Structures are given as C-alpha cells and as structure tokens.
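Please review this one:
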Amino acid sequence: MFVNSMLDLWYYKHNMITKSHTLSVGIVGLPNSGKSTIFNALTKKSVPAENFPFCTIDKNVGVIEIPDERLDKLSTFFNTQKRVPSAMTFVDIAGLVKGASEGEGLGNQFLSHIREVDVIMYILRAFPSTKIVHVYDRVDPIDDFEIVQSELILKDMESVEKRLKNVKKMARIGKENSLDESILLEKVLEELDKGVPVIDMKLTEAELILIHELWLLTAKPRMFVLNCKEGIAEEDLKRWEKGLRKHTKGDDKYILRVDVKLIGEMENVSEYEELLGYHPSTVNDVIDITYSRLNLLTFYTGSSKECNAWSIQNGATVKEAAGVIHTDLEKGFVTADVINVLDMIKVGGWNGAKEKGLVKNVGKDYITKDGDYIVILANR
C-alpha cells in the first residue's frame, strides 16, 4: 500500500492499530460545497442541506457499514446468527470560511471537531449554479481547498504557539527534553507560517512523537472529492486535478470526481452508466477510496454464532490483530491459525482446510494479510 510520507507511515502506526469499528472521516469544505449532501448519501441519515451558508449548526455523525462480499459469503457459509461488518464513521463538519480559525462564520467550535477524526475528506465544489449560492460567488476548487487548509494551518499555529510558550518556561527551569521540543516547535511553526501543512513537513519519527499529543489538524491524511456535474469541461476538471495532485504526492486515487447529488439518487448504477456513457462514481467508490486512504485491510473471525469483519492497518502483526478483537487476546497471545477466508470456504470449511494443509500456524510477528481468517490461541 502506497504511503505518502513518513508522517503517513507514523500516523497509521500510532493511530490505527487498535481501531476497527470506530474509524472516522471528517467531511470539510466551504458552505454549499456539497458536504451535507454527500453525508446524506453515505449515511442515509437526514441532515439539513438547505441552500444557504451555515445550515449545519452542529456536527452530524453517521456510522456506515463497509460493503464486504467476503463477509457475506462467510456469513452464508456458517448460516450465522449474527453478522458484524467493519464500519466507518462520517462526521459532517459545518462549512468553513476565511477567518474560521478566529471565529468567523461558525468559527472555532467546528475546527475542534476535526481533531477527532482519522482522515479529512475535502469536498470541493466544481460546478456553477445560479440556484445554489457560492459563498465567494465563483467556481475554483483549488482556491476553495487553500482557504480551508489555511484555516486549519492557522489553528495549528495557535496550538503550536501555545505549547511553545509552555515548553520555553519548562526549558528555563531545566526540564529534560524541553530544549529539543522547543527547537522542534519553532521549526514546525516556521513551516506552518510559510503555508506548509504538517503532513508535508520532513520530520523524523522522533520529532513526530514529540508533537503527537498536539493532534495538529494538518497532520491528518487527506483525500479530495471534486463535486462536479454533467457538462463541466474536461479541461477544467483535469486542471483542477493537476492542482490537487501535489497534495497527494501524485497519487490520483485520492482525487475522486463525484456528482454528489447524483450518488444520493442512484438506485441502479447500470442504468445511469448506460445513460451517461461512463461509470459514475458511487457511494461504494467513495467508501473504497476512503478505506484505502486509511491504509486498511480486513481480516475475519466467524462461526455459526457470529461472523465478524475487522479493520486494521496494513503491516500490523497478528498479535496486534488479536488486540483489535479484544485487548485480553493481545496480552495473552500464544499463537494463531490463519487461512484466506475464501480458500477456507472453497474447501468446505475449517476441517477441510486443515486436512489439505492450507491452515498455517503463525507466531506473534506474522504480518496480517487482507482476507485472513484468524483463530487466536491465548492465555486468559
């Protein structure tokens, strides 16, 4: 799995390991960019999406099931009593405008909500409309992104300055490591002042550990949704994508063209595909790319009583996977039996897989693979 930077790698390692059913995505953008509309489409939960700025007066939270054909097959195979999919939480955050970091619009309260999420999804308006007002009366997704990011940078500067002030006091009384942290914070502050988000800074793992507890907004992984309509010039879309590409280190898969209104209305994708002449982005496409941006894989446990899909970062060990299921399983981990879930189903189940020698017994350092069906042996 491609990782954009040392910060991405460290972020996943320190924030994703113990999470499975609580992954969260913050949806941000200017007012009337399509945030609440895509939130409604993703979660099927009704929130205000009227045609005026600041209609979202509090964060809206919706939990969605991650579509999973392998879990469906596993549940059918076991004829299970309970099917538990992996899930993802989407947080619709009120529209941000210039000055939000200082309380403009609905201000600081919504910036604080972003601290709680694992990845940021920028919704960028890429269509003109006389019916749906644009807060700055123009169409420029790149400028819209820069406005929102600037507010996040300003909020991060505020956090760093506050911490730096305290650290300098501790350095004067000789507290250990305070001088190192002070130098780092000044370095981070200087880069933020130049408009560089934390995720694009060249920081060592030791430096990342020092600033981790600040939960800086611009340190979070990000993805982009260009909210476009049929008829938008291809050359404009390509130009906007090129402008965003530098923020994804050239990885196009984190820039998605979506007709946000359309995905909420689509019942039969094939009918729209035939009508439009191309495959339109769907809710599942958005979920898949978000899952990829979180750098996740899925492993499984199951029986006739309950089948589960669990999410964990790529590169996690089987012992860490055990901790996702239950902390006691990680603490008492002894060994694990592992097989690809579809291979197990294909040969008729666990006993058949063992007879054919398909089940591997692995130790704590085994790297979990996407699609693993895992049985943990642990001391209680």
Q: What stands out?
A: The domain at 317-378 is CATH 3.10.20.30 (Ubiquitin-like (UB roll)). The CA atoms of residues 213 and 356 lie 49 Å apart.
